[in-house]
Write a structure and sequence with these properties.
The protein is α/β, with parallel strands linked by helices. It folds into two domains: about 140 residues; about 190 residues, Rossmann fold. The protein is built from 17 helices and eleven strands. The strands form two sheets. Strands 7-6-5-8-9-11-10 form a seven-stranded mixed sheet, sandwiched between helices. Helix 14 links the parallel strand 5 and strand 6.
C-alpha cells in the first residue's frame, strides 16, 4: 500500500471524490481500523467514474486521513461539545455513524492549495461544487474550523513523548517505547519517515532476467526506474503505475519487494545446491528471492501455518519459474514433523510474526493498534519459532532471525537471549538494523547466528 506524498498536487475536489472518501472511511471504521488498502480498492471499483489522477488524489487523502485519525477523532469530539482530552484522541472509539462527519471535519482542515494554509479548504471546494454535502457535517460549515483551533491548542499543550505522538500521529504508548529504545531524535526521524510515501520497490527475478533486461522491459511499457546501490537487484519505480498490470510482472521478470526485505533475504547467503528452510514463508516474497539466489538448484522448503498464504506462495513461484520451492503447512505451536521438515538444512530464515511497526509507511492504519497487548505479545512467540527452526539446522549451519519491527524487545532482545540460552552452541555472527529514516525501505531487523560444528 502506498502512502501520501508530502508535496501532493492540489486538485479540484470532484463530488464523486468526496463520496469515494466517505466510502473508504466507512469501510475503515466498520473494520475496526484495519485493511485500509482493501477499503480504497473497493471504493475505486464502486466509483469507476474516477479517473487515474482522481484515484491517486483520493488515495493520498485517504492515507493522510488515516494518519491523522487521532486529531480527527479529537476534533469530532470537540465539535460535539466535549472538552479536548487524551481519551478522545484514540480513534478506536469511532463507529460507522461517525465516518461521514469524520471525513467532513478532516476536509475542513485540509487546504485546497498546499501553499496557502489559511485559504479555502477542500471542504469549502466540495461544498461549492455540491452543497448537499453540508447535511453530512456535524455542525454548520461556517463553524467547522473552530474544533481545529481547540485541537491545535491541545497539541501545543502536550510535552515530551505525548507531544511527539500526537504531532506525528501515533499512539503515545508506542512512541514511549520507541523513544526509550532509539532516543528522541532517532525515534522522531523514523516516525516522520513513516509518514511519507512508500517507494514502489521491485526485485528483478534473475531466474528470468538480469537487471538491464528488466529495465528495458519496463521502459518498453513507459516505466522509469532507478537503481539502489546497496541492493544488487532492487529497482525503484518512479512512474506511478499499477505494478500488477505490467507485462514485466505478469511474465515473472520482476516481483514487488521492499528493499529491506531483499536485504534480509540476502543475509541468508543462500548458495546454489544448498538446503534452505524459510520458516515463516507467508506469501513467499523472501522465498522467491532465495530461489533466485540458489539459481533454482538445491532444496528450498517454505513453511507457514496458513494454507492461504502458502497457496499464494505457490502461485508466485510458478509465475517466477522458481521450481525448487516446496511448501509445507505446520500447526502453530506444534513441533514440525521431521518427515516433512528435515533437520539437516544448511540455513533457516525465521521472518517472525511481529508488531509490523517498521511497515507503517505502507500500512498506516496499523499504527492505531500499537497499544497494550499488541506491543508485548510477540517476543514469546518469536522465541518459540526460533527455537523450533534451530532444531532443523545441521551442525555448522546458519540461522537468520528477522522482523519488520523497530522495537528492541522483538529484535536484539530475542536474538541475544536465544544465543545466551544456547550456552555457546549458537553465536551471533552479524546483526543488521534498517531504519526507515535512512533509505528507501521499511524498517527491519535481522541477526545471523551460526551453530558450532
Amino acid at each position: 500500500m502506498e502512502s501520501e506524498s508530502p508535496h501532493r498536487e492540489r486538485r479540484p475536489f470532484r463530488p464523486l471524490s468526496v463520496v469515494a472518501l466517505f466510502d473508504i472511511a466507512l469501510a475503515l471504521v466498520a473494520s475496526k481500523l484495519r485493511h485500509a488498502d482493501v477499503a480504497v480498492q473497493q471504493a475505486f471499483r464502486r466509483h469507476r467514474g474516477l479517473g487515474s489522477k482522481d484515484r491517486g488524489f483520493v488515495a493520498d487523502l485517504a492515507w493522510t486521513f488515516v494518519r491523522q485519525l487521532d486529531r480527527v477523532a479529537l476534533a469530532l469530539s470537540v465539535a460535539r461539545g466535549n472538552l479536548a482530552s487524551p481519551d478522545a484522541t484514540d480513534p478506536r472509539w469511532l463507529n460507522p455513524r461517525d465516518a461521514k462527519p469524520a471525513v467532513a471535519i478532516f476536509l475542513a482542515n485540509e487546504p485546497l492549495n498546499a501553499n496557502d494554509q489559511h485559504g479555502p479548504t477542500l471542504l469549502d471546494d466540495a461544498l461549492a461544487r455540491e452543497p448537499r454535502f453540508e447535511a453530512a457535517l456535524p455542525l454548520p460549515a461556517r463553524n467547522m474550523r473552530g474544533p481545529w483551533r481547540a485541537v491545535r491548542a491541545f497539541v501545543e499543550a502536550q510535552r515530551g513523548d505525548d507531544h511527539l505522538a500526537i504531532e506525528l500521529g501515533y499512539p503515545v504508548e508506542f512512541v514511549r517505547l520507541l523513544v526509550a529504545d532509539l532516543g528522541v531524535d532517532a525515534a522522531r526521524n523514523a516516525l516522520a519517515a513513516m509518514n511519507t510515501r512508500a517507494p514502489m520497490t521491485i526485485r528483478v527475478n534473475t531466474l528470468k532476467a538480469n537487471l538491464a533486461a528488466a529495465r528495458d522491459a519496463l521502459r518498453a511499457e513507459r516505466i522509469e526506474t532507478k537503481g539502489r546501490p546497496e541492493t544488487e537487484n532492487a529497482l525503484v519505480i518512479t512512474t506511478r503505475t499499477n505494478l500488477y498490470a505490467l507485462n514485466a510482472f505478469k511474465h515473472g521478470l520482476i516481483e514487488a519487494q521492499d528493499e529491506g526485505s531483499q536485504r534480509v533475504a540476502a543475509l541468508v547467503e543462500a548458495q546454489p545446491g544448498e538446503s534452505i528452510l524459510d520458516a515463516c514463508a507467508g506469501a513467499g516474497g523472501k522465498t522467491l528471492a532465495l530461489a533466485a539466489a540458489m539459481e533454482n538448484r538445491g532444496r528450498l522448503v517454505a513453511v507457514d501455518a496458513s494454507r492461504e498464504r502458502l497457496a499464494e506462495c505457490e502461485r508466485r513461484a510458478t509465475r517466477a519459474g522458481a521450481t525448487i520451492v516446496k511448501t509445507e503447512r505446520v500447526r502453530p505451536g506444534a513441533p514440525w514433523p521431521e518427515t516433512r521438515v528435515p533437520t539437516d538444512f544448511d540455513a533457516a530464515l525465521v521472518d517472525a510474526p511481529c508488531t509490523g511497526s517498521g511497515t507503517l509507511r505502507r500500512n498506516p492504519e496499523m499504527r492505531w493498534h500499537l497499544t497494550g497487548d499488541w506491543l508485548t505479545r510477540f517476543p514469546a512467540q518469536q522465541r518459540a519459532i526460533l527455537d523450533e527452526a534451530a532444531r532443523h539446522v545441521r551442525p555448522g549451519g546458519r540461522l537468520i532471525y528477522a522482523t519488520c519491527s523497530l522495537l528492541r524487545c522483538e529484535n536484539e532482545a530475542v536474538a541475544t537471549d536465544f544465543s545466551a540460552d544456547s550456552q555457546g552452541a549458537w553465536t551471533l555472527d552479524h546483526t543488521m538494523r534498517i531504519d526507515p529514516a535512512t533509505g528507501a525501505s521499511d524498517g527491519f531487523f535481522a541477526a545471523r547466528l551460526c551453530i558450532r560444528k
